[in-house]
């Protein structure tokens, strides 16, 4: 790229003139200008000003093996030269999606052995929704098509993704959601647990909200429950341990399919290939994308359980669905090598045995005691910090999420990239972080919290 010939101001002006950013207040962006990241190496990203920023979000939950992996560039280059593209429609295939599918079947939970490709998590959830409804139709139960989801869920930004998701603001702009999707309470103990209620009991109560929704609709009308193992974009809401076993029991009891959205948790983030394995679940679909290629190429894989796959084969008939880039050979080749690197470097074991527990401890010991922190929590290498004005009462600062935004802005100024969601700060570091990187991150976050507290208590 020849961006070096442009000043920051020039790039920002062109950006403002021509580029509509995702999830952005465009008026705001015009006024402030974008932060432009130009290159990255290992755990760091660099902007046009030459600032080095520790990337606590792994890009956007995806760059699990870190930046600057020449190997992936080489694989993409070789695949592009040999075969840049061919489709997988009409009984055609190319080698790399085939070999990737075999690999995915090997690492997925035992009951999951088939893959449907797309280019994004949203597309994969679109596929999942259509596939699950198609499954019940093939089984002679077309009315069994209702999906139960949760408030605060994030399942992508297409119309199906937004409809499956439980983000109120997004639904507000939907002007007509996909019908027959219901949203129940999320397992968000920090705000929803009642006085005197244990985490265990709260987890059961939140799971039973799913059962109530199933019973209300009638189990004969409910196709599936969809959930992220721990909600990501909704603020790293980690359910109590009692939640998933109860959900599993409820789904089995009412013959409701289990759809896990592992777009964030897939490929090592929780210390297993998939959170399903950590939680002991055998889902009927697992949505994956992001870290499948560590973000080096856009690719999603909907992993499909044997129950659904067997019906597709037995009943036959075309499933009228697919994307031009389903099984894109370059993206699949990059994914295969990415998974190989994750294995070769033992990154999943590292999260499970070393950095995951250390991360939890560091958040707890170094951040949870801070004057404006109400709670820290984590799930593998996903973390959350709740920002409050009063620790004991968990009262929030006025101004909606402005306090968390203030923390975020100080954090970035301290060289720490992290996100604010409502009143929650979230982290999703690459799996290459070591104990030293976690220490460095905590140093920077503490400084950001200190500075934000001074600002916030002043106003
Ligand atoms: C990011 C995300 C998606 C959407 O993926 P895109 O690639 O942005 O379409 C879906 N589900 C979850 C849980 C996600 O985090």
TrEMBL record:
Top-level taxonomic group: Bacteria
Q: Which InterPro entries does the record associate with it?
A: Aminotrans_3, PyrdxlP-dep_Trfase, PyrdxlP-dep_Trfase_major, PyrdxlP-dep_Trfase_small
> Which terms does the record give in the GO molecular function aspect?
beta-alanine:pyruvate transaminase activity
**EC numbers, comma separated:** 2.6.1.18
Keywords assigned by UniProt? Aminotransferase, Pyridoxal phosphate, Transferase
Q: Which SUPFAM superfamilies match?
A: PLP-dependent transferases
- Annotated protein name in UniProt: Beta-alanine--pyruvate aminotransferase
Q: Which family does it belong to?
A: Belongs to the class-III pyridoxal-phosphate-dependent aminotransferase family.
Q: Which major enzyme category is it?
A: transferase
Signal peptide interval: none
Pfam families in the record, alphabetically? Aminotran_3 (PF00202)
Q: Which CDD domains has this protein been placed in?
A: OAT_like
